[in-house]
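Customer ticket, subject: "Can you confirm the structure for FxSxx-COOH system tetratricopeptide repeat protein?"

Message body: Hello, I'm evaluating your service for our small team and ran a test protein. I'd like someone to confirm that this is what the system normally returns, since I don't have a reference to compare against.
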Amino acid sequence: MTAMPEEPSQTPDERPGVQQEADASGHGRVYQAGRDQTINEVVLPKGALRPVTEVAAPPGLVNVPAHSQLFVGRAGELASLKEILGDAGAVVVTAVHGLGGVGKSTLAAQHAAQQATRFNPVWWITADTGTAVQAGLAGLAVALQPELGVLPLEALEARALAWLQAHRGWLLVMDDLTDPEAAAVVLDRPMAGRILVTSRLGEGWHRFGAHMLHLDVLSQDEAVALLTRIAGHGRSGGRLEGAAELVVELGCLPLAVEQAGAYLHQARLSAAAYLDLLNASPAVMFDRAARGSDGERTIARIWRHTLDRLTTTPLAGNLLRVLAWYASEQIPRTLLDGFADGPDLVDALGELAAYNMITLEEDGAVSLHRLVQAVARTADPADPHRHEPDITAALNHATGLLNRALPGDTRNPATWPVWRALLPHIATLASNTSPVVDTATIAHLLNDTGAFLYDQGDLARATTYYQRALAAYQRVLGADHPSTLASGNNLASAYRAAGDLGRAMPLCVQTLADRVRVLGADHPDTLSSRSNLADAYRAAGDVGRALFLHEQTLADRVRVLGADHPDTLSSRNNLASAYQAAGDVGRALFLHEQTLADRVRVLGADHPDTLSSRNNLAYAYRAAGDVGRALSLYEQTLADRVRVLGTDHPSTLISRNNLAYAYRAAGDVGRALPLYEQTLADRVRVLGTDHPSTLITRNHLAGAYQAAGDVGRALSLYEQTLADRVRVLGTDHPSTLTSRNHLAYAYQVAGDLARAIPLYEATLNDCERVLGADHPLTQVVRRNLEATR
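Agent reply: Thanks for trying us out. I re-ran your input and got the following:
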């Protein structure tokens, strides 16, 4: 052997590609391309460096890792891979991309194992770095010709690439490729085999002409099967109790399911117990692996590594933490307006989408996996992307963006699509924050959202949001702050609308007193509180006090706000309704007609308040006995409300209920009954079984059955409605007393005076005690009782 000159020193990043050259003796030398000096000298068996075209792959050359025990379902994805990665033609590159932990490697391993009889070799390369790609190719070269194992990596890589170019019928899997450029040494070459890539990265593959296959989470059934298989390994038993609830909480993400299953098996926990731990200590459970599991492959660490790769786009991590507070789907892109400058925001969204941390939908919305959100909003001092101050800042930012996106007028139908788009994200933020740490910004968000929900008839959620808002305002701003007083006023209104007069009345009284003291007697907010207190008195049956307050409020609003102010028109409408409740139909009709004309002039014919005035005027006509005019106006109002507000709006349902009542009053029970039945079904669906309006329709339907001669169905429905009203509204609520009167009357019609008379007597006593001897309902019950004697 001839002596070789010393090799000049070089840094690793100066190495270009290598080329091989055989000397006359048949021994191989490896030279650095472009230099005269060799970089190494190796002695190989004679003929080892024969042309790659003469080197055949050993039969059954497969190095695919075993993932079959963790594989479930995915029949559709496997079929797609089989179809794309056929065994004819030029090279086919397929990139399976998706969120970290979604099962890309498992799918690729399953496909590769299934195709081991069609392709040879089937070679698996862990491709998370360029060095790993090189090592994987070198391993292939050695597997093809073990005697080449003495060659340096560069030479082995070049040998493997040359072999792949010279042969067909092989399948190369490049797993967890983080950057397409790291595999360009393979993908840029003309070849006739099959290359399957798995990557969290969903972009950058177009230059290689790759087929793209996005991998989503498992179905619920598949996730349950995987959890049960792992948790029940080596044990007898069937389906794991509580598995469905757990996998739903885990978002059916395979890695999370695997992590949970292994932990259940090791700790002998139930699925419900694991779920409790997850809710109580999310930071711990997201990062905890059972013995025998890869400690670096917990969901927290997988996504930490992904965000590490996004450090060149710092805004991406901030954006992910903000998105974590919203619902996981259909986040409007417009909600992020103002988050950052346009190009920077687009870059951050694009980078997160490229790594499958979020999905950019075709309609412009943003979505992301719920478990990504759960991790991103859970503080962990060991994770640089999840420090407590950053998460708190993200919550404040997310709340601020929602507040800025809220439409101004909750009663304007034009704003409702925006409201409905934002509601899921407001609800998610509220459910993932604790009331004890609510800020004034969160309180403002919940208070305004409560107002929209109140107008939409969702009293339960409105009340919950108002309660949280009031508690936060009291703690953060103090009891006398205008926002605190406004929140108390709103909560009192929600209590009253729900029939909870026991809580509504004292809160109305307290809020009015506080506003008089803090804001003054003539402040518009004070006048609103006085009007609300008057409404509460009317709802409680105290018509005298209600009339006095409504008259006073109307006079003050005319003086302070002017005759045409919308609040003044509301006072006039409310006063007319109070007159009607007191039995003064003449004054009620006059005032309703005047208010309707003024609202048409000031607000327009289609304004919700105008439609309310038209409905109330029709109600007054019916009370006055003018059923013809009432019917015509009810029919017009219902048509207008369907057109302006929609079929399911609470006001539309009021119009439908009232129209049915007018049909019944006109003697047309045949038209009244189906309209009542439909309205009841719609109110149950939209408002809920226990909503006061639902109970009103059920009571009216019972009356329609009675008018139709079906006393049996009427009695059953009256009894059910009375029981529900006692439970929901209380024994002394005016609506409950009305139900008792109606039930007694049904007993009377059925000839059961033994039950009717005692019920009349008890109801009359309660009406006199609660409403007074001269109240219209008291007088009705008294007349009904007298008719039985």
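A couple of notes from the result: The radius of gyration is 37 Å. Residues 580 and 588 are 5 Å apart (CA to CA). Feel free to reply with more questions.
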